[in-house]
Specification:
The protein has one domain. The protein is 73% helix and 0% strand. It has four helices and no strands. The chain is globular and about 40 Å long.
């Protein structure tokens, strides 16, 4: 069983950062980047859990919900990855870290 804590930590840090951003930064693209990430994390988790089913998309519920969407979908993926390889977990961490850089680069 791979260690998924680096993924949980990266997701929690990004979600906390998104929660702390002012509305102007969220509107300038940080929320969109967060939503893109939440959708990708969710799709990855669903593909692991239900490989024969088309993943459902995370809805756009607005600027102030995206941090929670990142947190929930990231933790869902971490749980689904308990049977994945360490390499797959590392790739997911990299995905979250890249999204965090994109969120910081907005504005």
């Amino acid at each position: 069983m791979p260690d998924v804590m680096p993924l949980v930590t990266a997701v929690d840090q990004l979600a906390d950062r998104l929660r702390s951003l002012p509305q102007s930064r969220l509107r300038q693209g940080a929320a969109a980047h967060g939503l893109d990430l939440a959708r990708e994390l969710s799709a990855r988790a669903q593909r692991l859990e239900f490989p024969d089913r088309e993943p459902r998309s995370v809805p756009d519920e607005g600027l102030f919900v995206v941090a929670d969407q990142v947190a929930v979908t990231g933790r869902d993926l971490a749980e689904a990855m308990r049977t994945a390889s360490a390499h797959e977990v590392a790739e997911a961490v990299k995905l979250v870290e890249e999204a965090a850089r994109r969120c910081e680069g907005t504005g």
